[in-house]
Design a protein that fits this description.
The complex is a heterodimer of chains A (326) and B (164).
Chain A lengths: L4 E4 L3 H7 L4 E4 L5 H6 L7 E4 L8 E3 L5 E4 L4 H6 L1 H6 L1 H8 L4 H6 L2 H5 L51 H7 L3 E6 L2 E6 H4 L18 E7 L7 E7 L10 E10 L2 E10 L9 H7 L6 H11 L11 H18 L3
Parallel strand pairs in A: 1-3, 2-3
Antiparallel strand pairs in A: 4-5, 5-8, 6-7, 6-8, 9-10, 10-11
Helix pairs in contact in A: 5-8, 10-11, 11-12
Chain B lengths: L1 E6 L2 E6 L6 H8 L18 E4 L3 E4 L12 E3 L12 H8 L9 H14 L5 H7 L11 H16 L9
Parallel strand pairs in B: 1-5
Antiparallel strand pairs in B: 1-2, 3-4, 3-5
The chains are: A alpha+beta (326), B alpha+beta (164).
């Protein structure tokens, strides 16, 4: 690993001041340290955030939930308020990685988790995300686990997070501070499509620091779940996953929120899918209609065509579980 | 960079390069070679240690400077006064190892598991060790060993205490 300077931020202002030039913030390190060992990340400096008071999980005045950026994935997953009011977030977190990684990984770090595309993670290969302009070896290469939605001719890398899929279905807000002050961004606006600049994954500017995520109050009476399909039962990334929150009244879906993971270049939400569910009876036929809409724009690659049907079944199953329709 | 880390109850002050990983700090700076490095990519779990007594972490995926001010328990900290920890004895009794390479990580993951869940069922045990790979045993005897230790520790909770 390259050598680097190590600075411990004592305050948020301290962290922002230090964030000049080729530096990276360090929280849990489960993505960053891994990528530094692979020479994919070679920062000249590391700014350690772990002394900052950003690990708190607490209710907000409106009945929602504040999750500090440094709150560890395991602590969020087992937090009684999350388990009770946002169970799909707990399920999503516990379906990710292994207990040891969840003990280190942070909420903010998971938001910024990098793709598992093997070409991104191998510094010898062409990858527009790692090395802009070098090409994309995944197109036509080993792309079984890569995206079928939101891709471009420059990048087909999947966003690998489980947490972010649940946060998208829960309509979370990401709170950011930077040299231009503080701002709050709906998670639906936080991630960027790869387009011609796959190296830019979020709206964050250099030196910006994610400080927390907030969730709106839980939808009263809603059913929800997170379903993750993968090659083995644990410690594996999703081939397809679905986070759904559905409120039913008299057998009719009043409100539906749907986000998908494992199939797209960012946590995937399609408002047409939700519109196709709302006002409809909770039946497998209507779920299948919504799944058809979800995948209508899918662009399978050479080795991941199976994901089209897999994602449909994943969504239908998640909606069936959340609405208790068999 | 100067750091102070308490390992198995003993405080160590050392000057380390920031890029030194905790696993190598334990093995090479402190000579505690019980912590193994397997995949070096946070997959296999050979390097698991306990941080602050109740948190299993992969020491190959954190910098030693991240352990500054913390307490680390390694496999060397389990045995007390020449007597194996009930988990170590159970791995022996149940043949929970063959080559032994994964064993330090298995033991430390199990050690933390039993602190949080003194009586885990088989599914909970298997989920807890999902981040620890074993190429020899097929896991059956590892699960049995953790069950044995769980039973013994329930009968004699004081035996669980290690370190400072």
């Amino acid at each position: 690993m390259n050598s680097f300077t190590f600075t411990r931020a004592r305050t948020i202002a301290d962290a922002l001041r230090s964030a000049r030039g080729d530096v990276k913030f360090l929280a849990g390190g489960t993505t960053l340290v891994d990528l530094m060992k692979l020479d994919v990340e070679r920062p000249a400096g590391i700014i350690d955030l772990n002394a900052l008071p950003l690990a708190e999980v607490r209710r907000t005045p409106d009945g929602g939930l504040h999750i500090g950026a440094l709150a560890r994935n395991s602590d969020v997953a087992h937090h009684p308020d999350v388990v009770r009011d946002y169970p799909l977030l707990s399920q999503a977190l516990l379906s990710g990685a292994s207990v040891q990684l969840r003990n280190m990984a942070s909420t903010g770090g998971n938001l910024l988790q990098r793709t598992r595309c093997v070409y991104f993670r191998d510094a010898a290969m062409a990858c527009n995300k790692r090395s802009p302009g070098s090409g994309c070896a995944a197109i036509g290469g080993f792309n079984r686990n890569l995206a079928i939605l939101g891709t471009s001719a420059h990048c087909i890398a999947t966003n690998p997070s489980d947490q972010n899929v649940a946060l998208t279905a829960l309509e979370a807000t990401v709170h950011v501070t930077g040299s231009n002050g503080e701002r709050s961004v709906p998670i639906g606006d936080f991630y960027l499509l790869p387009g011609q600049t796959p190296e830019r994954e979020t709206i964050l500017e250099p030196g910006d620091l994610v400080t927390s995520v907030t969730l709106p109050p839980p939808a009263p009476g809603a059913g929800s779940t997170y379903v993750k399909l993968r090659d083995r039962a644990s410690f594996e990334f999703a081939l397809a996953s679905a986070a759904v929150v559905v409120t039913i009244k008299g057998g009719v879906m009043q409100r539906a929120r749907v986000a998908m993971g494992g199939i797209a270049t960012k946590p995937w939400r399609n408002l047409d899918v939700e519109a196709a569910l709302e006002g409809q009876p909770a039946t497998r036929e209507r779920f299948a209609d919504a799944a058809q809409i979800l995948l209508s724009d899918a662009k399978p690659q050479s080795r991941n065509g199976f994901k089209v049907e897999l994602a449909k079944r994943c969504l239908v199953h998640a909606l069936s579980v959340a609405t208790a329709v068999t | 960079m100067k750091i102070a880390v308490t390992v198995n109850g003993e405080r160590y002050e050392r000057d380390v390069e920031p890029r030194t990983l905790l696993a190598y700090f334990l093995r090479e700076d402190l000579g505690l070679t019980g912590t193994h490095v397997g995949c070096d990519s946070s997959s296999c779990g050979c390097c698991v240690v306990a941080m602050d007594g109740d948190r299993a972490v992969k020491s190959c995926t954190m910098f030693a400077v991240q352990a500054d001010g913390h307490e680390i328990t390694t496999v060397e900290g389990l045995e007390q006064g020449g007597k194996l920890h009930p988990l170590q004895q159970a791995f022996w009794d149940q043949h929970g190892l063959q080559c032994g390479y994964c064993t330090p990580g298995m033991l430390m993951t199990s050690y933390v598991l039993l602190k949080h869940q003194p009586a885990p069922n088989e599914a909970e045990i298997r989920e807890a060790i999902a981040g620890n790979l074993c190429r020899c045993t097929g896991y059956q005897n590892i699960v049995k060993a953790i069950q044995q230790a769980s039973t013994e520790l329930a009968a004699e909770p004081a035996a669980a205490a290690v370190g400072s």
